[in-house]
Design a protein that fits this description.
Helix content: 40-55%
Distance between the termini: 65 Å
Structural class: alpha/beta
Largest sheet: 6 strands, mixed
Strand content: 15-25%
Radius of gyration: 25 Å
Number of strands: 16
Shape: globular
Length: 559
């Protein structure tokens, strides 16, 4: 079998199979993350990113290869999450740009597209690091260009491209010492190899092992449920259950104060309190969507099973009135007055309702719920920029894996947007406190960026696997303390790990220790920690806030 040209239809099928193959292997890619933390999410981010691209491709019926590639680039751009997702979007952005005018593409065109993608991706990364997805993409594209000089068969070209991508992936530990230390290959590079495997399998007419139809997400189910209603054919006063209520329950069955969970019983009970009910659960989390008249009753009942997170309640009567007004035939009336833009708007990405409230209290205009395990997409950030409704918008990503998506969102919109590269919540807090609404954009950018260096960050979490990293032997379940991105201490006991970490972080220049207490920390434990700090460091002031952040029992800001 030989294929010498690709049209849009065949390219579309390649993309869909590549995306599906990554979906099936996302957890495996997640497991390759170097840090053994419970929020290693490279596979998840790449999967969500390429799935967004594949969705755009499915919606484009064109047989024009260039137009299909442009759809992929568009979907990837807006759906990109995390550094790996942004880099992936740039790889295919360059690829699409190179072939945009071509109705069909040859092996040479495909190879040139891969090289253009690498060039685009390298330009997008401020400090490219070798031994990552960038290296795998570069080596594969360079080899493809050499092969394409002699080979017209696209299947043969892709076989060689994939072969070199795998070889490059296996070399990544030689380029990044931390990969060799932990004994893994680069997770982003592995994700790219998986996508290429899907491309090749589709061209050869093969189905890869484990290819299944992915279960719809709660968001997809919610959208389907909402679309059953013909909004413009009903009256606002006819809405029986007025509040669209969405939330998640972090199950705590082992807690004596909580009730054991049965999805069937839970669904049956909630069905009495509203309609449009959707419940999706696994061993740890329950996701709920319901239209209820008394959302407080729903939340109170759900809270008997665990902690409530990611809550969102919207008044559908108000929404419906707005929709009907928008859909109704226009009538002569005075034009609506647009809300005036404020001079500045600050967007903060946070995890945990307590941290979100804290950022709002110190000046954030818009808070995006996200961070560890749920990096917001470029599109999420673009929407937040619009919501901020300001002449100048300042974004605080508060996570190293969100900075690139924030910068990509800033490039997409047509207005002044500054990205202050805060990599942790404490850095974001320090930056926002340095903001001065009375000075110009340049002065604020300088002051807020400088403030990032004035705070140390500590985090307490747990190891999800056995590993050796940064000179520490870690066993699954060990509590570990991360000091400014480096795992510095460990202990079998969470409180002891926290004590070791603050002892490591606090020096003679420290004046204030801010503790953000997470979901996995008790008030009694926190009180013991505060007592330890105050007795050990007499000149240090301690502040405690309920952050309610998942996965990280404590986040420390040392100033």
């Amino acid at each position: 079998m030989s294929i010498t040209v690709l049209d849009g239809k065949r390219l579309r099928e390649m993309i869909i199979q590549g995306a599906q193959h990554l979906t099936n292997n996302a957890q495996m890619v997640d497991a390759l993350n170097v840090f053994p933390v419970p929020d290693g999410d490279t596979g998840t981010n790449m999967n969500l990113s390429i799935t967004s691209g594949a969705k755009e491709v499915k919606n484009n019926p064109s047989d024009h290869a260039g137009k299909v590639a442009q759809s992929l680039a568009k979907g990837l751009l807006m759906g990109a999450r995390g550094n790996s997702g942004v880099i992936l979007s740039q790889l295919f952005r360059g690829f699409a740009k190179k072939i945009e005018s071509k109705a069909t593409i040859t092996a040479a065109d495909f190879a040139e597209g891969l090289e253009a993608g690498v060039e685009t991706a390298y330009k997008a990364v401020m400090k490219p690091v070798e031994g990552t997805i960038l290296t795998v993409a570069k080596d594969a594209a360079k080899h493809a260009a050499t092969v394409a000089k002699q080979e017209r068969d696209i299947i043969a070209l892709l076989e060689e491209t994939l072969k070199e991508a795998k070889a490059s992936l296996n070399r990544t530990p030689d380029l990044l010492p931390v990969l060799k230390e932990v004994g893994v290959v680069d997770s982003g590079g592995q994700g790219l190899v998986i996508i290429y495997e899907g491309f090749l399998a589709e061209l050869k007419g093969e189905k890869l092992p484990g290819v299944t139809i992915a279960a719809p997400s709660l968001d997809e189910l919610v959208n389907a449920e909402h679309h059953k209603s013909a909004q413009s054919h009903m009256n606002t006063e006819d809405i029986e259950f007025g509040y669209c209520t969405e939330f998640m329950v972090k199950l705590e069955a082992d807690n004596a104060t909580k009730t054991s969970f049965s999805e069937e019983a839970f669904r049956n009970e909630l069905s009495k309190k509203g309609d449009s009910l959707l419940v999706v659960s696994d061993e740890e989390i329950v996701k709920v969507h319901i239209h209820a008249e008394y959302p407080g009753e729903v939340l109170t009942y759900a809270q008997t099973f665990g902690s409530l997170i990611n809550m969102k309640i919207e008044n559908m009567r108000e929404q419906h009135s707005s929709i009907v007004s928008h859909d109704a035939p226009s009538m002569p009336s005075a034009p609506a007055k647009a809300q005036a833009k404020s001079k500045y708007g600050i967007i903060s990405v946070t995890m945990g309702s307590g941290i979100a409230d804290l950022f709002k209290s110190i000046g954030a205009s818009v808070v995006i719920e996200g961070g560890q395990t749920m990096n917001p997409s470029t599109e999420d950030i673009v929407k937040a920029i619009e919501e901020a409704n300001a002449e100048t918008v300042i974004i605080l990503p508060n996570n190293s894996n969100i900075v690139m998506a924030a910068r990509q969102a800033a490039d997409v919109v047509d207005q002044t947007v500054l990205v202050i590269p805060s990599k942790t919540v404490p850095q974001g807090m320090s930056a926002i406190l340095a903001f001065n609404p009375e000075v110009d954009v340049e002065a604020n950018e300088a002051a807020m960026t400088e403030a990032l260096s004035h705070v140390k960050t500590g985090q307490i979490t747990y190891a999800v696997r056995d590993t050796s990293i940064d000179g520490l032997e870690l066993n699954k379940g060990d509590f570990m303390g991360i000091a400014d991105g480096k795992i510095s201490v460990k202990d079998k006991n969470q409180l002891e790990a926290a004590k070791k970490l603050v002892d490591h972080l606090i020096d003679e220049d420290a004046e204030i220790v801010t503790i953000l207490q997470g979901e996995d920390a008790s008030d009694e434990e926190t009180a013991s920690l505060v007592e330890f700090i105050e007795s050990s460091f007499e000149d240090v002031e301690v502040e405690v806030h309920s952050g309610e952040q998942p996965l990280y029992a404590y986040i420390f800001a040392i100033e």
